[in-house]
């Protein structure tokens, strides 16, 4: 029996715009059922804004939406044409709080949905891509918002030196405690040392491996990105298996500066199994709920659970002893950690978007080092990017080198003329 391709959703000019959103997002999402991925989350946000604007809810006071005032219904595909997308482009461009590249990015989400609608039979033409529709959009200078920060050598050294000192002090304080120290105080010292060691290991990995933060830590919007586990690391070989942006597992290099912080951190934490995340969350609220739920599932009564928790100053320590595996910190969690560490290290940061050393800046800064030292081909392999993309993103290096060549040529001509 053959099912009619239109049987699940009838595609007519009067179909509501929002009826198409979920199917589109499933097609563009990642993971089982298409319910994960950052693109899906961002596209869903922009489609919602577009629908609200089309209904007259997000325009100016004199904007009533794309449906004629005398018609009592919500926006449908019948109402979409070239003029609608032109007006939305003008609406985005007129938002003084948006940078020009952000306007371009937001419009691309709507344009991609429009193209999908053409393929699915909702629309007859890709109105959003017509020249007149895109005319109000500002020029795109090729830069991606928030993607330009690169840690300088001075910033990288300042941050790694700070976390190294903090970890050394915390570990020494824990390992030199007198034998008669109260058990709870000993556990508190261990917890402090583990947290400092985790922060050091995280900073060193971000600073020297050039691994994307989304490949290293948990992404709540993509179930496949659960954060690297100890079983994914081979410290002897200097490698780490990560789920790459290209949707497949691959080995990333762990250079020498990263190995020692990871070894020290692992020895201190002593995870009960290899399946533990390398960078587990230390959030007390998350861990408290996890510990109570897991112990209850194991059959322990509430009174016994409360008594066991009272024996530990932090639930992470109980989780370690009871082998209750916590989740990895998220990509947003890493940003919060780096904000805290950047402030504590008193690092001088001059960037229009970030007042701290953002995770992607570590990768970009390492790219700068590799391109200058070994060229674009080697840098592309290490960064897991195409050489073409690396040349594009680090074009300022080549431009500077060509400028030096031009200067040298001019000086040689001037000396010959003299």
Automatic annotation (TrEMBL):
Among Gene3D superfamilies, the record links this protein to: 1.10.150.130, Intergrase catalytic core
InterPro entries referenced in this protein's UniProt entry, alphabetically: CB (IPR044068), DNA_brk_join_enz (IPR011010), Integrase-like_cat_sf (IPR013762), Integrase_recombinase_N (IPR010998), Tyrosine_recombinase_XerCD (IPR050090)
Mark out the compositionally biased spans (Basic and acidic residues). 20-33
Keyword terms of this UniProt record: DNA integration, DNA recombination, DNA-binding
DNA-binding is among the record's keywords: yes
Q: Which residues form the Core-binding (CB) domain?
A: 12-118
Q: Does the keyword DNA-binding apply?
A: yes
Protein name, entry field: Core-binding (CB) domain-containing protein
Organism of derivation: Halorubrum vacuolatum
């Amino acid at each position: 029996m053959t099912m009619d391709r239109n049987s699940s959703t009838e595609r007519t000019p009067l179909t509501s715009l929002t009826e198409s959103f979920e199917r589109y997002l499933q097609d563009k999402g990642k993971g089982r059922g298409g319910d994960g991925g950052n693109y899906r989350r961002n596209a869903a946000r922009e489609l919602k804004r577009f629908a609200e604007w089309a209904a007259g809810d997000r325009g100016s006071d004199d904007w009533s939406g794309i449906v004629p005032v005398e018609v009592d219904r919500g926006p449908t595909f019948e109402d979409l044409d070239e003029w609608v997308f032109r007006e939305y482009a003008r609406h985005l461009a007129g938002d003084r709080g948006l940078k020009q590249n952000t306007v371009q990015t937001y419009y691309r989400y709507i344009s991609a949905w429009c193209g999908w609608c053409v393929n699915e039979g909702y629309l007859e033409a890709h109105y959003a891509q017509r020249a007149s529709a895109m005319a109000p959009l500002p020029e795109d200078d090729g830069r991606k918002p928030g993607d330009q920060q690169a840690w300088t050598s001075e910033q990288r050294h300042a941050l790694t030196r700070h976390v190294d000192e903090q970890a050394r002090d915390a570990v020494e304080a824990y390992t030199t405690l007198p034998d008669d120290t109260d058990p709870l105080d000993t556990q508190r010292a261990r917890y402090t040392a583990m947290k400092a060691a985790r922060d050091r290991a995280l900073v060193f990995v971000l600073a020297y491996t050039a691994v994307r933060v989304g490949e290293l830590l948990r992404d709540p919007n993509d179930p496949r990105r659960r954060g690297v586990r100890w079983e994914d690391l081979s410290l002897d070989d200097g490698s780490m298996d990560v789920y790459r942006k290209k949707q497949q597992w691959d080995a990333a290099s762990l250079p020498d500066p990263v190995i020692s912080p990871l070894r020290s951190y692992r020895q201190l934490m002593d995870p009960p199994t290899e399946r533990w995340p390398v960078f587990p969350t230390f959030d007390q609220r998350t861990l408290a709920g996890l510990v109570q739920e897991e112990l209850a599932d194991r059959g322990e009564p509430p009174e016994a659970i409360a008594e066991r928790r009272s024996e530990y100053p932090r639930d992470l320590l109980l989780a370690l002893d009871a082998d209750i595996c916590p989740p990895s910190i998220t990509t947003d969690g890493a940003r919060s950690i780096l904000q805290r560490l950047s402030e504590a290290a008193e690092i001088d940061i001059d960037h229009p978007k970030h007042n701290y050393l953002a995770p992607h800046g570590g990768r970009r800064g390492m790219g700068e080092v590799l391109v200058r030292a070994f060229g674009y081909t080697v840098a592309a392999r290490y960064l897991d990017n195409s050489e073409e993309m690396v040349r594009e993103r680090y074009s300022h290096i080549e431009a500077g080198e060509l400028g030096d060549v031009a200067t040298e040529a001019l000086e040689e001509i001037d000396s010959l003329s003299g």
